Amino acid sequence: MDFPERRVMQEDVVQYKLFLIQSECLSSQQTQNRLTHLTEEILAKVAPLLMQYIWQHQPFNLKYHPEKCGVPAHIGGSTQFGDNVEDEWFIVYLLQQITKDFPELAARVEDNDGEFLLIEAADYLPKWLNPDTSENRVFIYQGELHIIPSLSKSSSVGFPKDVVPGVEQALALLSTNTEACLASPKIRTAVRKRIAGYPEKIKAGLHHAHCYIPAGIASVLAQRPDLVAPAVSAFYLRDPVDLQACRRFKTFPPDTRVLTMVTFSRCLYAQLQQQQFTPDRRSGFTLPPRSHPQYRAHELGMKLAHGFEILCSKCRTPSSEPDAPVSCNPQWKGFMASLKKNNYFRGELEGSARHKQLTRSAENFFKQSVVSTSSVLTPGEEILRLLQDCDTLAVEELKKQESQLPQEDSDSWLDITAQDLEADEGEDSEEEEVAGYSLVAVSQGMKSFLNTMSSHEGAELPWSSSAQPFNVDPESISSALDKLLGGKAEELDSDDLDDDDDDDEDDDEVDDKVKEEDDSSGNAETDGTQTLDSLKSYMDQMDEELMNTNIGQSFSQTVNSENDHEPGEIQPLDVDFNLVSNLMESLSCQAGLAGPASNLLQSLGVHLPPNSDPA
User: Which of 18, 276, 396, 436 is the most buried (most CB within 10 A)?
Assistant: First the structure.
């Protein structure tokens, strides 16, 4: 089967699209107007969450996109998440909430790995669903994961698995057969578990730390806390050319340093904290001894200052002409009305300090996410613009506030011990471990695995509830082998080995053939008896040869006190005991790390407790 070639997406970028579930009755202009209005409503709805989130590289954004190349008009965007994959899953949470609050929309989301939502639920997918058959089939609708099904005998809803439906076709089916397209509970649970904890998880993912930074940086971060991200990235990805600008700090002189609280994401803090760096002597940055109680604050501030200086050194000073106030923008009034409708100001009195702070944050968000500008400023240009707009730096005032700073967060979460990993694993699979502690389960699991018939696509996992029995037509296999080995003149047809959903028809054909073969079973039984006797004789000869070697000493034999064996007689092996003891020895050699034995047992659904006996 031929599938259209997938477009190549940039690495570490997540792309998301929101479609109108029913747009066939709207004209192009009506669709554009509706989607544009929805963009404003959505951004106003999620603004309280986005304003407190610090993105690794790029923020969540929504823009109108007209119809193109068979993709209907939609609103969407893309976000580069870099090293912080949590940004990607936060976007999944946002899409879940958006489709729940705006039921006329259905969302698609993918990254360079493709349908990463299906990857998260890989253990529970139906057999027909794979990277080739999943295109344009996975949607988030009404807050739940939906998968456009494949046609089968039990259901006429869906598309054949070898057909890639168009987006419009998939949306039409989703709107008329929502229940049939709903993903299975296990698939939805796997995805829901990955985004569990939001929106509380936003604050838990932040880290507040004391930093000695130049007063200019403290002023910039007070207005735009999100600019800490490009500064950390500039320092983290620095090169010798970047550091030339840091020999003398022209924008942020070190002699204006003040102690302040800086908010990072945990990923950004880890990147800054774990970097080993010694500043240039000409820079003016000197660090106290490591034993100094404020050493970490000085070191973090020094690194952060280098990042800000690098950003500003790469751009020119922007025009001193001030921007038009956001109140002049016709969209601002509607945006503010949506914020008030969603209780953004939380009852704060207009004119109060808190109300002014929230309004300032809303203005910054409006400029970045709502208003589409022809020329987008770089982070360095934004920093220089903020420095121009702010009043004369009140260094003394900032120093007076040092004694009033709240306590910084502990960074003990950076130190992950083996006990922490075992505890996390125990929480994730507590129910499975309770059933898997029995050593009998190890033996039974291996036997089930070895006795299970598998397809040409790979081994079936006997513990998987989604695994279906694989039915084989012996005649078709024999015919295919004859063709492959040149026994027949016909060419080998790939359909001879194709694993379809039509296994029920194959079963009926096998039953008919079995009935036809019953008449000639007498001769077959005679031939089978002769073959079995020959095989038994061959095995006896092998046993006699192995008796003269030491290979038998590596196995444990059955202990039976009632029956005494004659000298030289082969004693039967305790297969279960040998299997379990060898697996335990392999696990012990892995020393708690991943390896063949642990991977095999986990694939079989068997989870063993940690080894408490070092001997």
Answer: 18
Report the alpha-carbon distance of residue 437 to residue 301 in Å, rounded: 50
Q: Determine contact, residues 115/101, Cβ cutoff 8 Å.
A: no
d(CA 478, CA 472): 11
Whether 107 and 98 have beta carbons less than 8 Å apart is answered as: yes
25 Cβ contact list (under 8 Å, min separation 6):
none
Cβ–Cβ under 8 Å, residues 100 and 81: no
For 501, phi then psi, to 5°, come to -90, 5
Q: Which two tokens stand for residue 362?
A: 């809303």
24/412 Cα distance (integer angstroms): 55
DSSP H or E run through 170:
helix 167-176
How many Å apart are CA 442 and CA 436, to the nearest integer? Answer: 8
Instruction: Report DSSP letters for 53-86, one per residue.
Output: ---SS-----EEE--BTTBPPEEEEEEE-TT-TH
Helix, strand, or coil here: 136? coil
Does 149 sit behind a cis peptide bond, omega within 30 degrees of 0 on the bond before it?
no
- Residue type (1 letter), 32: Q
The stretches of 548-613 forming alpha helices (DSSP H) are 575-590, 596-603
How far is the C-alpha of 213 from the C-alpha of 257, rounded, in Å? Answer: 5
199, 194, 202: which is closest to 54 by C-alpha?
Answer: 202
Domains of the chain by residue range: 13-196, 205-316+394-402, 326-386, 575-602
Count of other CB atoms within 10 angstroms of residue 430: 10
pLDDT in tens, 128-184: 999 989 999 999 999 999 999 999 888 889 999 899 999 999 999 999 999 999 999
Integer-rounded Cα Rg, in Å, for the chain is 33
As beta bridge partners, residue 211 has 260
The 10s digit of each residue's pLDDT in 310-325 is 999 988 766 555 566 7
The angle subtended at Cα 119 by Cα 461 and Cα 417, nearest 5°, is: 85
